[in-house]
Amino acid sequence: MNQIYIKQKKADNRWGQTALELAVFGSVLLFVIGVTVKQSMNQSYGQHHHIRAMRMALQQSYMYSEGMMGAGPMASRNSATVIYVEDRLAGASAKFASKNRSPYMASGSASFSRHLFMAIEGNDRQDIARIDAFVNGQYFPLTISNYVTIAVPMTGPDSAWDPNCLIRSTTSFSPTGAIITTQSPAGCRFFPMKVFNHRASEKYCCGTPTSTCPNSCPADLLPEDDRFDLDRDGATDVVGPALRAEFGWQWVRVRGWDSTKNSTITRNFNIAELMNIAEEVNVMLDLDGDLKQERVWSMVSDGWGRAISYYVEDFQEGDWDSGVNDSDTKPRSGFQSDMQVYTKTEPGHYLLIEEGKLFAADQPGRQFVRNAQKKDQIDVISRLLQLSADTGRFCVHQTGFEYLPAAQVDPERPGYNPVEVCCSPHGGCSNGLPDCFSGNNLVLTCYIAGDMAAVPPIYPRIFVRSRIRDIRGRKWITDVQNDPYVNITY
Fold first, then answer.
1. What is the pLDDT of residue 1?
2. What's the pLDDT tens digit per position in 227-283?
3. Are 247 and 212 in contact (CB under 8 A)?
4. Helical ranges in 157-252 per DSSP H
5. 80 closest CA partner among 56, 100, 115
6. Is 0.85 topped by the overall pTM?
7. Distance linking the first and last C-alpha atoms of the chain
8. C-alpha torsion 47→49→53→56, nearest 10
9. Domain locations along the chain
10. Helices and strands (H, E) in the chain, number of each type
């Protein structure tokens, strides 16, 4: 008996080891399957968002170009760009379903060529190019330029002021009746303009002409070193002579003078290029000194024909400045990396889980197993959208630092404005609360205006608050009456 007992004991150990190995292998297999399913879901979500963003860009470009949106055909979405953001519940193998959210962001671009080369008139604000951002159902049409007036300083001296750039001829008579012609100089301001290096360009020049740069720089125009001083700081960090023939662009200067205003005024020969707004010649200038060019549409001049102010399309004064680089002090436009998620669990918002057996009273002998889950909560997701300028489209300035939400952002969507409350950069909001993080403002899409006179300048921001209600639930009831079982009697 002892010998038989020992063999039986060894057999029992082997069976236990087999069961343990099966349990470990099964848990590993389930983990691998769960990870595979989770990654597949995430990949599917990401692909779905990219395809959806592309479809939305195609739709936006087509509808605006065909006049289905807005007042007739518009050029604002000739090349449409859509940013699509959605916070979806993350795939998880948790016992009580997923509770965490993962952000999915995709962008798409599309061009409908019907009005691709449609001429745009100055101050035609509906044709300003836009970026369409969709965040959990909220729509933000963001402009990438704006029409502004830039005043021209009429005094010198400085590097952009030439006291002898114009000559004015006046005629008078001597006591004997002889005609006396007097020429008097006048100062005017120059403005930088980029010219690009290609064989058809007569403005691009080099000190030593080559086959790739056949034009030499005239001595009476802008000196060659100044042409290649890319940041125009007067320092020696210029493009080297060996690279100039192959470089992409250089600066030249354009005279701030309208030759059609006064025929008695002439320019000093070859000091600078001339501008012709009517024929759109030399109308891309850097008027505000930010090393980026503005498109001139019109000008106001004095009696000499010298520019007092320019009305321009500034591509850095829209809601979204896509040209921010390392030389700029302003923050980069767009959605920032920081994000906050808040979950409200006030009375009425609950997570109820029920498990256990259920016996049907109306059916004696029937037996069920029940698993029920009910969920009712609100997730508030806050994102920071950095803007580049106060355009007055989302919030309207009143007096001082008081702002109110605009009645509408764009005319083609009457009454729509995603911003719910406007706040001053120095405190105080349109609903009486002190800032975007006080009281009920914590769950509202909140605009903080900018203050360019502050040191350092304060740029406007939008805290985009998405309120997502989760009322999912599930209920499993399994009839176990006919399940096979072993009847053990004692």
1. 46
2. 888 888 877 667 888 888 888 899 988 888 776 665 566 666 455 677 888 888 889
3. no
4. 224-227, 241-244
5. 56
6. no
7. 26
8. 110
9. 18-127, 149-314, 334-474
10. 3, 21
